[in-house]
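Troubleshooting log. The previous run stalled partway through. Resubmitting the same two chains, unchanged.
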Amino acid sequence: MSAFLNAYATIIIDLIKIALLLFIVLTVNAYLTWFERKVVAHMQSRWGPHRVGPHGLLQPLADGAKFLLKEDPTPAGVDKFTYFLAPLLALALALTSIAIIPFGPEPLHLFGRDIALGITNLNIGILALFAITALSVYGVVLAGWSSNSKYPLLGGLRSSAQMVSYELALTMSVVGVLLLAGSFNLRDIIGAQAHHPELGIFGWNVWPQILGFFCFFVAAVAETNRVPFDLPEAESELVAGFHTEYASFKFAMFFIAEYTSMITVSCLCAIMFFGGWLSPFPASWTFTHYLPSVILIPFGLWVIWDGIRYETIFGRIILPGVGTAITAIGAVLIVFPAVNEFIQGPFWLLAKIFVFLFVYVWMRGTLPRLRYDQLMDFGWKLLLPVSIANVVITAFVILLRGVK
Amino acid sequence: MTPQLAIFFVLAALAVLGALSLIMQRHPIHSALSLIVVMISLAGLYLLMGAEFVAAVQIIVYGGAIMVLFVFVIMLLNAGVEERTNVSKLAGIAGIPLAVALLGFLAVVIARSNAGADAGWQSGALANTKEISMMLFREFVYPFELTSFLILVAILGAIVLAQREKN
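Second attempt completed without errors. Output:
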């Protein structure tokens, strides 16, 4: 048994990592819907979900159960093969793209092995991600076409035109970062931003690549079909766009795919422009390493305090429990400095990802949807020229400073 | 059989089946989907040879951009199931000998270059993006620039055609 374990250890570790990452991503997905509904609700002076569990925290579970248990009718006249393929394709590709993201600088030492944080470390990292993005269009397009219905078809048409237009700007906008790093590898891109650890936040790519960052973020939001670029599913015009004819779990698959690609885009923004797992503080400020604890412990205490006063008995049990767990994690980090050092990288990366996810939700609560011709004009006449200009300027500056 | 060879056969079979399906399918969208399968299998073959960059570009450009455009046009025109016409006699008479000749020619070329195939296998000659760009911009700079010029002319042509329709 142990011989078998040793021979296949790398494969087994990889499989465990994949299962763990899938579990984490899907859970984050579920709570991202809760987060989005809560934040948008508060922006619109509403309460948002608050009936299922304390603060509506069990709402994602209820939603999941609903998706699984609902009737799943297949409309008449659909193209069966494509109709079933589309949600599968959307979800599979969205989840695959997460595999390329690295989550921390140091490998985890466990059972005498080094376990890297992240599933693969591809030399063509960012290109592989773009390849997956390029294919993920088909999920939306085929769903729209195969449903044998007018609104989904219009949604699919819009989506394919939008994706083709914005993919150009998306790809061009990262060329500047690639020129600065001299590599497609995501770990190398972060490494290139760590050349001046004494600068902290000012060593990140976002300063020399501010144009590239804005082009990338706008194009990426368009690629993920989110507000203000959610024309493929514009509910006021197209019922629900490309997934109008999908019900039950097939609808949920599109939903999960959309939220997963939001997470991927946030990861990419953080890694390529905001230094990935690098701390925003200069490297000599070692006291900032206690920041995770400084955030976690008061937050945990606040959750306990909030939980004791909660209206329902259920909430008065759950919330203090969660709060105690959060406080305990914060305390563990102070007690074990080795653990604290290890989580510095992942902490900053996750914090940055969270900020970008919040920006996504913020935009949804703030911005109106673009009209179709505005969308095309913006993509072709502004975004693409600006991103190309950014490439030219970056290349010139690198040339003037001397090739490495 | 090495794992590489096994993966090669799976990808090659996928590519051939996709190509056959492309011709046999009666609906344009299904044909387009088959073509995407062919493109992605080819990308897999490139990856197997260690040409990561070429593989990624193959998927981004062919699998993504170009095929999305195909699908877009098919959807926009709402093309239905194609009608079968009588096969033209010329295609029947000239097509089969030509196809056999092409197959024979390719077989001879491949059989002769058999020794070189092992050397190219995972040699990583095309793996490095830097080497590819050196080749494109130094050795093959004239063909490269000529191709770009051709594409520029095609873009201008497309703009002129689109403009005329507007007026």
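Takeaways: Strands of chain A lie at 108-110, 113-115. Chain A has a mean pLDDT of 84.
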